[in-house]
Write a structure and sequence with these properties.
- The protein is mostly beta strands.
- The chain has a single domain, classed as Beta Barrel (Maltoporin, Chain A).
- Helix content is about 10%, strand content about 55%.
- The protein has 9 helices and 45 strands.
- The strands form 8 sheets. The chain has a 22-stranded antiparallel β-barrel.
- Strand 19 and strand 20 form a beta hairpin.
- Helix 1 runs antiparallel to helix 2.
- The longest helix is centred in the N-terminal third of the chain and has 12 residues.
- The radius of gyration is 27 Å and the shape is globular.
C-alpha cells in the first residue's frame, strides 16, 4: 500500500466529520509517493478493481440522482460517508451519521427507535403516529415509517456508501422524503477478485459494561462471470443503565446479529443480475431512556421496555446497458417483526387518582410485509441531454396486536381476579397501504459550465385500517355495585376489588380508505464560474401521505362537549416548498474544499397529532404554517503533509408563523414557537498521520461535535391550551469530544480510542408524551476501547 494512499485512509478513518469525500481527495493529492520496503523493492499490493479505481480518481461519485454523478455537480446538499471512515470510526448505525451531518439531528431515545430531523422540519422528536420527515433507504427498500414504531438500526459494516441528501427529495424518493433522504448502499460482489476483511471492536463503559463487536466479509469469485460476497456481524454490548423497577443492573444491553449474502452474475458486458438476502436481529434487553430524578444512569419500569426488530430482506436487481441508456429493475421483499413493549404507568401520575400510579403497560407485536418494485431508465448518451425516468410501486401490510397489561403481583394485591393472564384488553388490527408513482428528471447542458435540471413525480397513495374480529375487553362485577360492569382502569385506580367475568370480543371493522395524490417538483440551475467551483439554485417541493383517524366522525360525549369539534376524517398531505442556493469548491489541487448552502423553507398545512378540548381524544389533523431558514457549511484543509483539519456547521431558524385559535387549542402550538431542532450545531476536528517505520504509519486524531438545545414538542397541552404541557422541555446543549491513536501495517490496523472524553451526561432527547416515567435520552458515558482491523 502506498504511503500516500494510507495517509488518505488514515485521515478518513480517524477524523469524525461529515465531509470524508473531500478529505480523501485532498490527502490523496498531498501525500508523498511510496518508499521502498525493507528489501529495497517497491511494495506492490494486490488490490481489487474498485479499490484501484478509487485510488486513481479524485472525483467522488454518488448516485443521489439515480445515476452516477460527481458529488460536485449534483445541485443539492449531500454528505457522503465511505466505508473506511464508517468502520474505522466505529460508526455501526444511525447515531454516528446523525452527529456528523450538518443540519441533521437524530432523535434516538433508544436502540431501534430512530427519527431523523433535517433542517428543522419537525414538530417534536417522536413523530407519534405521523410519517417520518426523512426517508431512509437500504438499497432500494424504504425502511422509514411512522414515529411510534421500531425501525432496525442497521449494521453499517461493508457498505459501499451512505448518502444523506438534505432538502425535499420527493421527485426521486417519494412522499416520505419531506425534508431529506438517507441512503445506505451495500457493497456488491467483485468479479475475478478474492478478498476478505474483518473488524473487531472491544470497549469498556464505566467499569463494568463491556462492549464487543465482530464483523467479517469474504468475496469469492466463481469463474469470471459470477461472484459471491458474504458478510456477518455480531454485537454484544452490555448496558450502562440500572433499572430500579426490575432490579437489573446495566439493563439496556444490546444483542445484535445478522448477515448478508449477495450473488452477482454478469453473463455479458451489458447484463448483470444481483441477488441479495440479508437478515438482522436487533434485541435490546431494555430501553436507554433514563429518569434523572432517580440519579445518574437510572431508569424505572415494571418490566423491561422492549423495542426489538427482526428484518429479512430479499432483493433482485437487473441492469442492462442499451448503449444509449441503462435499464434498472429492482424488486425487494421485506419481512419485519417488531416488539413495542412499554410501561405506560406514567399515564396516571401520582396524585391524579387515589390509586395512581397503577400497573399499566402495552405489549404490541407488529409484523410488516413489504414489496417494492422500481424500474428506471437512465440515459448514457452524453451530450446535452440526460434523463432518468421510472416507475415505483409499494405494497405494505402491517399487522399490529395490541395487548394491554397489568402484572400478576398488582392484580393479587388489589383483589383483581378472573383474568387468564396479565392482559385485560387485546385488540388485533392491520393496515394496508399502497403507493404507485411515475417519476423523471431531465438535465440539459447548455455547456460544460451551465445546465438546468427539472424533475417531476406524480403518484397515488392509499391507506386503509382494519380491526379483526376477536380479541376482547375484560370487564367484571364488583361487590359494591352489583350488576354493574367495571373496567380495569376504574377498579385499579380506585382500589375496587373486581372479578373479571365478561370478555367482550371486538367485531371486525373496516376503516375508511384514504387516498391522496400529489405531484412533487424540482427545478435546479447549475453554473461553474471556474472549473473548481460549482454553484446552484434549487426549488423543490415535498409532502407526506394523508392519515386516517380511527375515531373519525365521533362526537364528544363529555360534559360541555356538544359544541366541540367532530373528530375529522384525518389529516391531508402537508405542503412544503424549499428554495436553496449553494456553492461547492475545491482549491489548491484539492488541499482546500468547501461547501456552502443557504435555504428557505415554507411548510404549510402541517400534519400534527392533536387532542379535542372537551375529552382529550387524540387524532391527526393539519394546522397553520411554519418557516425554516438557515445555512450549512463543510470545510476541509490539508495545511501540510499528514495533517487534516476540518469543520462543519449549521444555523437553523424554524418556527410556527401561522395558526388559528382553534388550531392552537387542539395542538398546543403557539405562533413564534421554535420547532424541534437546534439553532446551532457543528463539528471541528484535526488528524495527523506520520511514519513510525518505512512500512508502518500512525494517526492521532480528535474531534468535537456541538449540538444546541431544542424544544421537545409544542409548549401547551393539546386540548387544554391554557395549561403548559407538563412534559415540555428543552434538551441540553452539549459537546461530545472523542480522540484516537491508530497504527497500520499493510492490511493490518489497530486503534485505541476514547468516546465522550469528558463523560458528558447531557440530555439529548425528551419524550413528549406523559405515559413514560423514564423519558430522557442521554449520551453514552465515557467509553475506552480498541479496534483491530484487517483489509479495511
Amino acid at each position: 500500500m502506498t504511503a500516500r494512499y494510507f495517509a488518505t485512509a488514515s485521515a478518513l478513518a480517524f477524523t469524525a466529520h461529515a465531509i470524508p469525500t473531500y478529505a480523501q481527495d485532498a490527502n490523496d493529492i498531498a501525500q508523498p509517493s511510496t518508499g521502498p520496503d525493507v528489501a529495497g523493492e517497491e511494495v506492490i499490493e494486490d488490490v481489487s478493481p474498485s479499490a484501484e479505481a478509487a485510488r486513481s480518481s479524485n472525483t467522488i461519485i454518488v448516485t443521489a440522482t439515480r445515476r452516477e454523478e460527481s458529488i460536485q455537480d449534483v445541485p443539492l446538499s449531500i454528505t457522503a460517508f465511505g466505508q473506511e471512515e464508517l468502520t474505522k470510526k466505529g460508526i455501526v448505525g444511525f447515531e454516528g451519521i446523525g452527529r456528523e451531518t450538518p443540519g441533521v439531528i437524530l432523535n434516538r431515545p433508544t436502540q431501534n427507535f430512530n427519527n431523523f430531523t433535517a433542517r428543522g422540519i419537525a414538530t417534536n422528536g417522536y413523530n407519534a403516529n405521523l410519517s417520518s420527515t426523512v426517508s431512509v433507504y437500504i438499497d432500494e427498500l424504504p425502511v422509514s415509517t411512522i414515529g411510534n414504531t421500531t425501525v432496525v438500526d442497521p449494521n453499517l459494516f461493508d457498505v459501499e456508501r451512505v448518502e444523506f441528501l438534505r432538502g425535499p427529495q420527493g421527485t426521486l424518493f417519494g412522499s416520505g422524503s419531506l425534508s431529506g433522504a438517507m441512503r445506505i448502499i451495500t457493497k456488491s460482489p467483485e468479479l475475478g477478485y478474492f478478498d476478505t476483511a474483518a473488524l473487531v471492536d472491544f470497549g469498556l463503559t464505566n467499569d463494568d459494561s463491556f462492549r464487543q463487536r465482530y464483523n467479517a466479509m469474504v468475496n469469492v469469485p466463481i469463474g469470471d462471470k459470477v461472484a459471491v460476497r458474504a458478510v456477518g456481524f455480531y454485537r454484544d454490548e452490555e448496558g450502562y443503565l440500572d433499572n430500579l423497577g426490575t432490579g437489573v443492573n446495566n439493563s439496556n444491553t444490546l444483542i445484535d446479529y445478522g448477515g448478508r449474502l449477495v450473488l452477482l452474475f454478469q453473463p455479458t458486458d451489458r447484463l448483470s443480475i444481483k441477488l441479495l438476502g440479508s437478515y438482522e436481529n436487533s434485541d435490546p434487553k431494555d430501553s436507554s431512556l433514563t429518569s434523572p430524578s432517580l440519579g445518574e444512569e437510572k431508569r424505572i419500569s415494571d418490566e423491561p421496555d422492549r423495542f426489538t426488530g427482526k428484518q429479512f430482506i430479499a432483493n433482485a436487481t437487473l441492469e442492462y446497458d442499451f448503449d444509449w441508456a441503462t435499464l434498472t429493475s429492482s424488486s425487494t421483499y421485506s419481512d419485519f417483526k417488531q416488539r413495542f413493549y412499554v410501561d405506560l404507568a406514567g399515564t396516571f401520575a401520582p396524585g391524579s387518582f387515589p390509586g395512581a400510579p397503577i400497573a399499566f403497560g402495552l405489549d404490541a407485536d407488529a409484523f410488516d410485509n413489504v414489496f417494492v418494485q422500481e424500474t428506471r431508465l437512465a440515459s448514457s448518451l452524453g451530450g446535452g441531454f440526460e434523463f432518468v425516468v421510472g416507475g415505483f410501486y409499494l405494497n405494505r401490510r402491517r399487522d399490529v396486536d395490541f395487548l394491554y397489561r397489568s402484572n400478576p403481583a398488582f392484580l393479587e394485591a388489589r383483589g383483581l381476579t378472573g383474568l387468564p393472564d396479565k392482559y385485560f384488553q387485546e385488540q388485533y388490527t392491520y393496515s394496508i397501504s399502497e403507493e404507485i408513482a411515475a417519476f423523471g428528471e431531465l438535465t440539459y447542458r447548455f455547456s460544460d459550465r451551465f445546465w438546468l435540471t427539472g424533475g417531476l413525480r406524480y403518484g397515488q397513495i392509499s391507506a386503509q385500517g382494519f380491526t379483526e374480529a376477536g380479541g376482547f375487553l375484560a370487564t367484571g362485577t364488583t361487590p359494591f355495585i352489583p350488576g354493574v360492569q367495571t373496567n380495569y382502569y376504574t377498579a385499579a385506580l380506585f382500589g375496587i376489588p373486581l372479578n373479571f367475568d365478561t370478555f367482550t370480543p371486538y367485531e371486525a371493522v373496516e376503516g375508511v380508505k384514504a387516498k391522496g395524490s400529489k405531484p412533487s417538483y424540482k427545478l435546479a440551475a447549475s453554473f461553474k464560474p471556474t472549473q473548481n467551483i460549482t454553484t446552484y439554485a434549487t426549488f423543490a417541493t415535498g409532502f407526506r401521505a394523508p392519515i386516517v383517524n380511527a375515531a373519525a366522525g365521533r362526537p364528544s360525549v363529555a360534559p360541555g362537549g356538544e359544541n366541540d369539534i367532530i373528530i375529522p376524517f384525518g389529516a391531508t398531505s402537508d405542503d412544503l416548498k424549499s428554495y436553496e442556493i449553494g456553492a461547492k469548491a475545491v482549491w489548491l489541487d484539492g488541499r482546500v474544499t468547501a461547501n456552502l448552502a443557504a435555504y428557505y423553507i415554507d411548510w404549510s398545512n402541517i400534519q400534527v397529532q392533536a387532542n379535542r378540548v372537551s375529552d382529550s381524544v387524540q387524532f391527526a389533523t393539519n394546522i397553520g404554517a411554519a418557516t425554516s431558514k438557515g445555512i450549512e457549511f463543510e470545510l476541509g484543509v490539508v495545511p501540510a503533509t499528514g495533517w487534516f483539519l476540518g469543520a462543519n456547521g449549521a444555523y437553523n431558524d424554524a418556527k410556527i408563523t401561522e395558526l388559528t385559535a382553534a388550531e392552537a387549542a387542539i395542538s398546543g402550538a403557539e405562533v413564534g414557537h421554535r420547532l424541534s431542532a437546534p439553532r446551532i450545531q457543528g463539528a471541528a476536528f484535526v488528524s495527523y498521520t506520520f511514519n513510525l517505520a518505512d512500512d508502518m504509519e500512525a494517526t492521532l486524531a480528535t474531534n468535537a461535535q456541538y449540538i444546541g438545545e431544542y424544544n421537545s414538542s409544542f409548549p401547551n397541552q393539546p386540548g387544554n391550551p391554557n395549561v403548559r404541557l407538563a412534559t415540555f422541555g428543552q434538551t441540553d446543549a452539549y459537546t461530545n469530544v472523542n480522540a484516537s491513536f491508530g497504527v497500520a501495517k499493510g492490511k493490518l490496523g489497530a486503534q485505541l480510542y476514547v468516546e465522550n472524553i469528558f463523560d458528558d451526561h447531557s440530555i439529548t432527547y425528551i419524550h413528549p408524551e406523559a405515559f413514560l416515567i423514564s423519558r430522557f435520552g442521554t449520551l453514552r458515558p465515557r467509553t475506552f476501547g480498541i479496534r483491530l482491523s484487517y483489509g479495511i
